[in-house]
Give the backbone structure.
Amino acid sequence: MAYIKAISYYLPSRVVSNEELVAEFPEWTVDKIASKVGVDERHVAASDETATDMAIKAAEKLFEGRSDIQKESVDFVILCTQSPDYILPTSACIVQSRLGLRTDIGAFDFNLGCSGYVYGLAIAKGLVVGGIARCVLLLTAETYNKHLHPRDKGNRTIFGDAATATIISNEGFAEIKDFVLGTDGTGAENLIVKSGAMRFPNRSEEVSFDENGNPHSADYLYMNGAEIFSFTQQNVPKVVKETLLKNNIEQDDIDLYVFHQANKYMLNFLRKKLKIAEDKFFVNMAKVGNTVSNSIPIALCDAKQQGVLRGNVLLSGFGVGYSWGGVMLHIK
Amino acid sequence: MELNQFVENFAAQFDDTDASVFTPETKFRELDEWSSLIALSIIAMVDEEYDVVLKGDDIRSAVTIQELFERVVALK
């Protein structure tokens, strides 16, 4: 069996408040939008601070805080990011060296967004249960703000940068139960940064503005909000039901639901659609925003601190790809 | 399904635009308050009230509220 042993997170020091966004976009109702999406402030990485830097800080926090977790015992590193330092080498290799981890360990990145943490737990569980590793360091680190056009007020309101570190081992406080995973690449175009990799290696340097004054450019993150909403509306309730079925448990026997913190509006809609009571549904994005693959581990960390992480906990991540996943944790 | 009720449900997604502005012929994307977030509210409302899943394309290809209503009827 595989367990989560510890979780920590790191937020970059720069905080962007709603007031700051109001000053930048005076023509726009930032306050109204921000209250609908449930974000009061978000942290943004400095221009010289990358996802790898932040992942290292999150991991260091984990080792500093716990005497029972030694760097020397880590025998696998997996890093989830869509903001790597380089096209190659793999950021996880850089992390191994900068954290001073052993060299006889495995390390790789995987490129997923909002579903990434659930996938990371699935990989880590596979490594532990398969006897390939005994102490997996799962890192998530994302700087979506670096993918955003400066005039993209909507996404700048929603997204925050962050990194998290989780230890998965054969003992810990949360047993990782069964998974449901899904993929539908027909949605690729609806959440995309087009240029900069091999399909479109050169930056287009072109920007057009839509009817709401939002910039569209192949060089920055494009999100078709309505299509993404439609996708989650169709898929998340299904994933939740399948995850319950897979774990052979009734909806009422789940003590806490922790979804990817996409935005408050969408979360409330999903909660109502699934008929989940408010006190069993964790929402905590006011101070961090949508932190992509970091949102679930940050939520787990905060829920643990608030004493509400107990019993059966259902996680669900969904987004860019499209990619989605669900898993149940059982808290000891 | 009734068109006037649909127009009313549509209007309820707006905070600052007076309900009297909304008619079946209203070109909703021309309203000042129209935004991508209101598009999400419309998708949510149609799911809750009519049990129909609208795509972003359904909203984009409709010009008036009545056209969107007809799309919802067709998908029902």
